[in-house]
Design brief:
This protein has a five-stranded antiparallel beta sheet with strand order 1-5-4-3-2. About 45% of the residues lie in helices and about 25% in strands. By secondary structure, it is an alpha+beta fold. The radius of gyration is 15 Å and the shape is globular. α1 (about 15-25) packs across α5 (about 110-129). The chain has helices at about 15-25, 35-45, 60-70, 100, 110-129, and strands at about 5-10, 30-35, 50-60, 80-85, 90-95. This is DUF302 domain-containing protein. InterPro entries: DUF302, TT1751-like_sf, UCP021774.
């Protein structure tokens, strides 16, 4: 099972990150968490990795619908989007919202996952278009 979608951008990381935030915003997602993995790995382990940020994207209406079906789905929220440096460019990856359906085996969540997937895919597509 493929659990993510991705796009490669011919932009350096420091330009890609704000573009991703804007693309998510245009699709109704706010960034409610942000984890700088490079800083975390350096601080906690003394290890170096490429610029790598995990954005926790949330569309409140979709999150409310999902929680209305199954309160435990908060474990799968927010929708994670990774922005990471890759050579001269960047890679943007998003978790496929269908995991909300497949992991707990809840077919009644399919419409919410479909809508979240459509919006997240549109955000990714807007970055490469």
């Amino acid at each position: 099972m493929k659990y993510f979608d991705s796009v490669r951008l011919d932009l350096p990381y420091d330009q890609a990150l704000p573009r991703v935030r804007e693309a998510l915003k245009e699709q109704g997602f706010g960034v409610i968490t942000e984890i700088d993995m490079r800083a975390t790995m350096q601080q906690k382990l003394g290890e170096e990795i490429e610029d790598y940020t995990i954005l926790g994207a949330c569309n409140p209406g979709l999150a409310f619908q999902a929680l209305g079906v199954d309160r435990s789905l908060g474990l799968l929220l927010p929708c994670n989007v990774v922005v990471r440096a890759d050579g001269e460019g960047s890679v943007v990856e998003m978790l496929d919202p269908q995991t909300m359906v497949d992991i707990p085996e809840r077919e009644d969540l399919r419409p919410v996952a479909n809508e979240a997937g459509t919006r997240l895919s549109a955000a990714l597509a807007s970055l490469s278009g």
